[in-house]
Amino acid sequence: MRRRQVREKLFHWSGIAAVVIALTLVGIFFGTILKTGLPAFWQSTFVMDVHFDPEVVQIGPKPEPMPGESPAAYQQRFNQWQLDLGFVDFGQIIHKSIVKQLPEAAEHPDETLALVTSGELFALRDRVVADPGIIGQTVRLKLLADANVDVWLKGNIDRDLPDTQQQLSPLVRAWADQLQASGVIQNKFSTAIFMNPDSRSSLASAGLAGAFMGSLFMMIIVILLAMPIGVAAAIYLEEFAPKNRLTDLIEVNINNLAAVPSIVFGLLGAVVFIMWFNLPMSSSLVGGLVLTLMTLPTVIIATRAALKAVPPSIREAALGVGASKMQAITHHVLPLARPGILTAMIIGVAQALGETGPLLLIGMSAFVASIPATPFDQSTALPVQIYLWESNELRNFFEGRGSAAIIVLLGMMLALNAVAIWLRKRFETRW
Amino acid sequence: MMENNMAQATMGAKLDALPNKPGGGPAASGGIKLSSRDVRVFYGDNEALHGVSMDVMANEVVAFIGPSGCGKSTFLRCFNRMNDTVAGARVTGQITLDGRDIHDHAIDVVQLRAQVGMVFQKPNPFPKPIYENVAYGPRLHGLTSSKSELDQIVESSLRRAGLWEEVKDRLDAPGTGLSGGQQQRLCIARAIAVSPDVILMDEPCSALDPIATAKIEELIHELKENYTIIIVTHNMQQAARVSDRTAFFHLGDLIELGTTSQIFTTPKQQRTEDYVTGRYG
Question: Is the ipTM of this complex over 0.90?
């Protein structure tokens, strides 16, 4: 008797211990990610007056076709304008702006340019193209500092390292400190990570927009394909299919497919969709198709479980008052199974959203520096972007941009789950 | 031995109180409603019902009794072809409703089930409002053309099922929120809403307490006016109380069919006597 009580106590406490350990691990996981990732949303930013000097920016407005002008002549004019634009030295504009704050930098244009991330040169150019009237004016702008300056100022890099191991020259490091002290460089929340595509040359202005769009397209494709196919397959197998060898075989195979390593689906996608059907490589269309294949077994299995959970008495009741089998399913079984089916769908989409392996094999790990506009464009995905960033030591260890991307991904997952819970609640209370 | 005597004594006392019913032939007037000839049911290779032939008259209540697994529920489910929905089940023989073969290709099983309603062992209202539960059948069969007509059907069905007074103020409340007895009466209302000729009841009271059971039995008495009722029951007193005729099944055979008073007082077959006196079952 006493031994039994001791055993029950032991069982009780080991259960509590397991929960505590699990919660601690989850806490550590989220703690580290938030600690390294959150500061990455705030970046060192120059806040200063920028003078668009007409001496430097010698460019007219973007040419428009004139009446009576041949297309060829217009094209020539346009090409010349583009060429001129390419020769405009926007670096000089930034250099002059910094010199205004820091007169001793006047003789060192290379060092001043090392302070600002190179993507801002193109940002200035885009500003001029969008509004030629800005030439000759002085505007107060926010310019992102270079990633190396950012980690230096944040103290993420050991300041005592010898010069040979530092990314920045002593002069630049000193100026960065000086500009921060005078308030020109401020630590400001940056939208670059949300608005820009990835970049290799301008690390500080690289963003997730391309990967986000890629993931979004793939999720839409997965929902549009996996939902109807998976639910229909589950309904057929659960409600209509005769029980025989063939359906047994199909069932076993579906269960096995759910356990197939996801990278195998990538291989299949590369062969079938890219080599046979000639769909564009590393497009989110192919990615979505591959992820659909991968999530289908999960959706089918979970949907069947949801259908099975509907008591057979409900089916009998519907048949008993003269509903056909189809009506019994659509009027009664499906509405009751809807919360379960939605959960199945969300599990599937969340699985697809977080998947990296198969995407590597269809070329979605390529560096894509533009935001995809359609599912046919080359793109990458959020988890792949994390993988790419985390393999870069500056981003991984010092800048924490990878962790910031993880936060965005987790945020997306949370939003998805919140939607699922909301939908489930809604359908459960609606009689 | 002692127990058997006791059981017999109690049963005898109950049966004395039974109303007298004409012996022998069918109790109720009216023609033959349902008729079965050599009906066999197979589950896979296993024959569960071995050729049952019987007639059910219009507006009578027939009770099927017998030990568990004797085929009475299986036979009941033949009348509205519910066995069609069971995987591997096969029915042979002939069943006619008003002289028409229900297995005929010209008969739509959906129409058949509207004509032959069913109430199940466990109350199984839809998880929808009470109103929707009753309105589902008429809507499905397009019996009404307007909302007010539908309202009327819902009200009269609930009235006939003796549930109207209890639920008229909360027709929007979920049917699953009612008590067990109310749920079963809701299921009866749902069945009669499509105005069937026959109502099949598969142990309708087995999940209910004695008070709810009494209400259902009372209801069966009233429904008899308009419907033909076949009821499967494990409770012999119930069979004695509600039915005009009783059929005793054993191991897939129809052993004896007669007026209820005859079955319970002067059974012709030894097995029937053994069962109704509680010697087995």
Answer: no
